[in-house]
Design a protein that fits this description.
Length: 292
């Protein structure tokens, strides 16, 4: 598959809130970011950027008040904004009122045509502090001309099964939307590199700025090299241009020209039982993933 380089913009910023006037302010933020970085084709914001809570507010109350169906007024506003600017827009995550009546922490994705092309519901809320329902699907989406992108949200990055499945589904880039104000951001930065290395995939871990997060957003290439890193705490727009085809080239030639994690099995090797999952790795099925 022939692709062209993808200019991305990762907006490390503090959260806005769920009121209508904040959606208008968010639109102004997006227009300003694109005005300053007109080449950016994919613009992303941190976890719960549009569903933040102010000091002293009860998060549960905010969650209930902010939750909307994805095709509600908020979603229509975001789709229109993506169409107006002709960009791929990941507006962080939002509280979604799901069709089953439960509230999810969900990352929607809008195309330059103003369509919601997919949405990812956080599989691993940070229990017991986060009470949203858990998602149950691994989500990737294709960006025509650029490559395939997978989605994770914050704590998901601690569970290697998620990034591994996204890479197996052919993701060239995994976008991890984060809201971490705690000292374990240091570990998350390491996890971004580790997930990139063991899956041979670009990783972009986008954290919120103070007071909602401690920053240190990071972009890592498929061999684990840090391409860009934002500063601690403060607001900034971190940009990069990613040749997503590099992930496929690394899988073919091996990390550092050596390690080929998607072809580790002998051709006559039997399936490997996985007691933890009550399942197995089938070498033939493994080989069919993460291919050009």
């Amino acid at each position: 598959m022939t692709t062209i380089p993808l200019p991305i913009g990762l907006v490390q910023t503090a959260a806005r809130h769920h009121a209508a006037e904040d959606l208008d302010a968010f639109a102004a933020d997006v227009r300003r970011a694109i005005g300053e970085h007109p080449d950016v084709r994919l613009l992303a914001y941190p976890e719960l950027h549009l569903s933040g809570h102010r000091p002293g507010e009860d998060p549960e109350t905010v969650m209930t008040a902010a939750a909307q169906p994805l095709d509600g007024p908020r979603g229509r506003h975001l789709a229109s904004l993506a169409r107006e600017l002709g960009i791929w827009l990941v507006p962080g995550t939002v509280y979604e009122q799901g069709p089953d009546g439960r509230i999810y922490n969900t990352a929607p994705v809008y195309s330059p045509a103003g369509e919601r092309v997919t949405e990812y519901r956080k599989i691993f809320p940070w229990r017991p502090y986060e009470t949203t329902a858990s998602g149950s699907s691994f989500v990737v989406f294709d960006m025509e001309d650029y490559g395939r992108v997978g989605l994770t949200i914050c704590y998901d990055s601690w569970f290697p099964e998620i990034t591994r499945h996204l890479a197996w589904q052919g993701a060239d880039l995994v976008l991890n939307l984060v809201r971490t104000p705690t000292v374990d951001r240091a570990q998350e930065v390491v996890l971004a590199q580790a997930n990139a290395i063991v899956n041979q995939v670009f990783m972009a871990s986008l954290n919120a700025a103070s007071p909602d997060g401690v920053g240190r957003s990071i972009v890592v290439d498929p061999e684990g090299h840090v391409r860009a890193e934002a500063g601690p705490g403060g607001e900034e727009v971190m940009t990069d241009v990613l040749d997503l085809a590099e992930a496929r080239r690394v899988r073919l030639r091996g990390t550092a020209g050596l390690t080929q994690v998607w072809d580790p099995f002998a051709h006559d090797q039997p399936p490997l039982e996985l007691p933890l999952y009550a399942g197995r790795i089938d070498p033939e099925r493994w080989r069919r993933g993460a291919r050009p």
